[in-house]
Amino acid sequence: MVSCTGSQFCGFALAETKNRAMALMEKLEQQLELPRNVRVHFTGCPNSCGQAQVGDIGLIGAPAKKDGKATEGFRILLGGRIGENPELAKEFEKGVPASDLEDKLRGILISEFGAKLKAT
Ligand code: SF4
């Protein structure tokens, strides 16, 4: 996981990133078995200091709405590749409320990256 500094220390940020990213990744690692490492890049605004476009999953801080009210959110990009055949990630979904990210990322990891829920 990579994250820019986000709203904790950056005036450009449209979303909190680092602490949110760490908490989310810890939760998802507890819930899921993954067949391979997945590179998740969080960045708080389109300046993309966290290089969202090269992540398997990239998250870019963006406005969102939940229950009709403005809230912190993210655009989600998928499919960024580095190495011999590099590719920029493509937009998967816009305007995802930050509070929905755990469910959304769990679903993406299962449907797109072969993750399985751990037995409880
Ligand atoms: S991507 Fe945006 S929010 Fe993150 S450190 Fe860079 S300028 Fe700040």
UniProtKB/TrEMBL annotation:
Pfam families listed in its UniProt record: NIR_SIR
EC number: 1.7.7.1
Uppermost EC category: oxidoreductase
UniProt domain Nitrite/sulphite reductase 4Fe-4S: residue ranges: 2-106
InterPro entries: NIR_SIR_4Fe-4S, NO2/SO3_Rdtase_4Fe4S_dom, NO2/SO3_Rdtase_4Fe4S_sf, NO2/SO3_Rdtase_FeS/sirohaem_BS
Annotated pathway: Nitrogen metabolism; nitrate reduction (assimilation)
Reaction catalyzed: 6 oxidized [2Fe-2S]-[ferredoxin] + NH4(+) + 2 H2O = nitrite + 6 reduced [2Fe-2S]-[ferredoxin] + 8 H(+)
Keyword Lipid biosynthesis in record: no
Keyword entries, A-Z: 4Fe-4S, Heme, Iron, Iron-sulfur, Metal-binding, Oxidoreductase
Annotated signal peptide: none
Similarity comment: Belongs to the nitrite and sulfite reductase 4Fe-4S domain family.
Protein name (record): Ferredoxin--nitrite reductase, chloroplastic
Lineage: Eukaryota, Viridiplantae, Chlorophyta, core chlorophytes, Chlorophyceae
